[in-house]
Amino acid sequence: MASAPPQFPFTLLSPIADRQALRTRRFFLGVLAYAVGVVLLGLATMVDLLTPQGFALSVALVAAWNGALFWLFASGANAQFRDKSLTHVQTLGGIAVIMFVAYQFQRDRSLVLVWCLVVLLFGIFRFRTREFVTSTLFMLAGYALVINLLMTFRPQSVDVYLEWYQWAWLALILPAVALVGARISALRDRLVRANDELTNALGTIQRMATHDSLTGLPNRASLTDTMQHLIADADRSGRRFGLLFIDLDHFKAINDTLGHPTGDQLLREAARRLRTSVRESDLVARLGGDEFVIMANDAGDRDSLGLLADKLLASLSQPVVLEGHEVKVTASIGMASFPDDGHDVPTLLSNADMAMYKAKSTGRDRRIAYSSDLGEHALERFEVEKGLRRALQDNELRLFYQPKIDFQSGRMLGVEALIRWQHPDHGLLLPDRFIRVAEESNFIIPLGQWVLQTACRQIRAWQDARLPRFSVAVNLSSKQISDDGFLSHLQSILRTTGADAGLLELEITESMVMEDPAKSARLLANLRGLGVKLSIDDFGTGYSSLSYLKQLPVDTLKVDRGFVKDLPHNRDDLAITRAVIAMAHSLSMRVVAEGVEDQKQFDLLKLEGCDEFQGYLCRPAVSSTDLESLVRRHGLSIPLSG
Ligand code: C2E
Ligand code: MG
Ligand code: MG
């Protein structure tokens, strides 16, 4: 394996070899035929068929004609003709030469006319029917002219009847030869075309097997193959290489809200950016969905791999215009290097994947290098699936509550219920470790029911304990709201727990609504009818149409933590936050900022007119007992901890 693996494992050779050389070679083949003819003319002179003078004139004509042709080919002037091989010109010239020689012959001109067949043979591989017909007509006309000239200038040397008999014979035989020639020529064309098609089809099949049709990048099979070769080579030479596992952030939301064609467009653009950000010798592959892998040949150590990942993050996060919207897409990147993080393809890929997953769960738009403790902490998927069922039965799930504070009064108006898993071996697990698996395995339905039930019981318990009133927000997943029994289930929970529906708030994301807008609108209206409040979570990450949101019975927009994180410095985020606040207010919605961690963010958001905030500046999510004692101590005016 060469040190730089080719980006595309095969290339179709260009069929445009040096055609001019081929044409010149063909011309020399013609010259050879003339040479044979000249020898035969010499013999004819010896047996008195031709006078020495006639011989000399014929040879001079042959030489002049071939000299002229040679000049055309040698100077490249032939390129100016439509038929660059000059086949037709050469044929007509050849016929003229034959007719001249026939005129010079004293008798037995049929010997010369036989050469007409040789000339037609010459055209078999190049002529179409039209050219065969013109050549044949040219021959017959030429011979008729020769007979007439002979009758005028050398009547004593011509047997007119014999010559016209020969003419008639030619007129019969030549069209037949031309017809057969044209058929052969057509067959040959068809053969060439079929061969071309076959070559193209083979190329396409090979490409389909090794490449992704959407982006044109090599696919997983191709990546695995190249990696295997590179590993074998690196093992021998002691070389190192790096692997980047790239996953676009919130891609599903874009796909769901703007549609698949737009999603495809985004993927193509991402592929293009990745390809242009790396070296020729690096391999960029698409594994499927929004997952890409880059095999970087010269970035074997952590530092250079990190620099490359930063470059890719910067390039991907440049705004892209999709359907007239300017969209900013970020990515999460996991890094692994050979041989430190794995010796074989599956290990390297899964370690880079694990690091990517970590980058996602710690906030996205970042890169994380694989390390062995990542592996220890990462729970295997099946372990999560199996474990969650047990967790529900064995009461290992908890709801924690994070206060939402009103900017103006400083009072806590509500809390958000956030799920935790008190794992017997791994300690307290955050939802990013298991919610995705739960969603993918449908376990989110019983899990979500448990969350709703627990939150409502808690509302009732706090009501009974005569705590001041504050709302409890519950996060819903898309599978839950698309479940037809959801509404009646919620009703029965409210009934059995006796919780005040006015204290329950439901958080859904934009993309959940946009999956089936009409159905969601009906459901939201029904939920509203029960008296519960509704808010749109992670607002700004889903690209839903604002005009659509306006028709939904929603009370609150929660600005995603991603926009708050870099405030007040990031101008783009500031502009977005400002726009969301203005828009929400114009639609009579309240705005909650998520993830407020410091005083500067607090001051700015307050100044901009944001209504509530949630974040570590006040409290992280705490257990129900901790929250209860906080409220007992301070009422709803919980002091900030930051
Ligand atoms: P979310 O609904 O956007 O919840 C806010 C997340 O931001 C919570 O993470 C919260 O702990 C975190 N957060 C709050 N303030 C700050 C801050 O100042 N700085 C930082 N860095 N983070 C802050 P958590 O609890 O890990 O939840 C993550 C996500 O998991 C939630 O995002 C929500 O989408 C999902 N989730 C949580 N509980 C449930 C649930 O019961 N059901 C469903 N379906 N999803 C849930
Ligand atoms: Mg939430
Ligand atoms: Mg959120």
Describe the protein.
The protein has 642 residues and is of the alpha/beta class. The protein has three domains: 17-205, no CATH class; 220-374, Reverse transcriptase/Diguanylate cyclase domain (Alpha-Beta Plaits, 2-Layer Sandwich); 395-634, EAL domain (TIM Barrel), CATH 3.20.20. Helix 5 packs parallel to helix 7 (160-210). The chain is elongated and about 140 Å long. The chain starts with 18 loop residues before the first helix and ends in an 8-residue tail after the last helix. Mean pLDDT is 88; it is low at 1-17. One magnesium ion binds at residues 416, 475, 507, 537. One magnesium ion (MG) binds at residues 537-538, 558, 560, 594.
Number of helices: 25
Give the end-to-end Cα distance, rounded to a whole number of Å: 58 Å
> What is the CATH topology descriptor of the largest domain?
TIM Barrel
By CATH, the superfamily of the largest domain comes out as EAL domain
Helix content: 55-70%
- Amount of beta strand: 5-15%
Poorly predicted ranges: 1-17
**Sheet having the most strands:** 8 strands, mixed, barrel
Bound molecules: ligand C2E, magnesium ion
Average pLDDT over all residues: 88
Total individual domains: 3
Principal-axis shape equals elongated
Give me the secondary-structure category.
alpha/beta
Radius of gyration over all CA atoms, rounded:
42 Å
The tally of strands reads 16
CATH architecture of the largest domain: Alpha-Beta Barrel
User: Order of strands across the widest beta sheet?
Assistant: 8-9-11-12-13-14-15-16
